[in-house]
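Q&A log
Question type: sequence-to-structure
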Amino acid sequence: METNVYDVVILGSGPAGLQAAIHATRAKVSTLVMGKPFKSSLHRAHIENYCCMERTAGEDLLQQGIKQAEAAGAIFMDEDVIKVSQEDQWFIIRNESGEDLRCRALIMAMGISRNKLNVRGEKELFGRGVSYCVDCDGGFFRGEPVAVVGNESAAASGALTMMFYTSKVHLVSERLDISEVLDHQLRKSEVSIHEGRKVSEIIGQEQVEGLLLDNGKNLDVKGVFIELGAKGAIELATALGVAMNPDAPQYIATDKKQKTNIEGLFAAGDICGLPWQLAKAVGEGCVAGLEAAAYAKQFR
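Response status: OK
Response body:
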């Protein structure tokens, strides 16, 4: 197999992603799983409503799923994804180390973002300078000073992206947790890094007018991008033109085979909507894995 080329790539190593990996790999296609299991909401949960299973720690369940997928032949990459694009009939996935990987079928199973700063001004100024998606809203702040808040790859790559739109970008982070490659790119850029700092308040009346840090410093910004974690489904899906559920636009729209409107792209788990339950995630992961494998085999 050519290096960095796979039949199926799965974004997310929670229950939907792991079940998809088990079924796709057993269908005899090369399968790569990307993501960090400890970020799954299941990692911190205890399961007691899953059929045929007694109360179980979510962390233990995830580790067992990883072992099953690896035994079937799945490969795991403990890195976040910062960009997804298409080229001909390939999906191109860029990881936080700057590597590009290719696949025929892609499964989005990375759950949903539930992370907020929970500071004054965040809720009140949402949509008026506060955003949770650099890729979606970055273009609205051309030439304006902005801040990106977060500790991981989404924040770091978001800050670098904003440098294409404006010359003044602040990155506020308690502690950066990113790959060496991304860290090097960030520190050689002109992004102003405020490491070891927290946000105390987002300032503004009708629009964002500034960002107050916990050391009393006030950053003069017109936009605040809150990127607390890895690139989420909405950011990646938006870049590809994936259709969202018209009744609940925070979720990806799929059919009963977990297909999206993009040929070769499937979705499973919490990003497809309620209920946020293990049983639903596993079932959708099963279907997505089988369908993605069948799709990828067409190109052999």
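Response note: The two ends are 12 Å apart (CA to CA).
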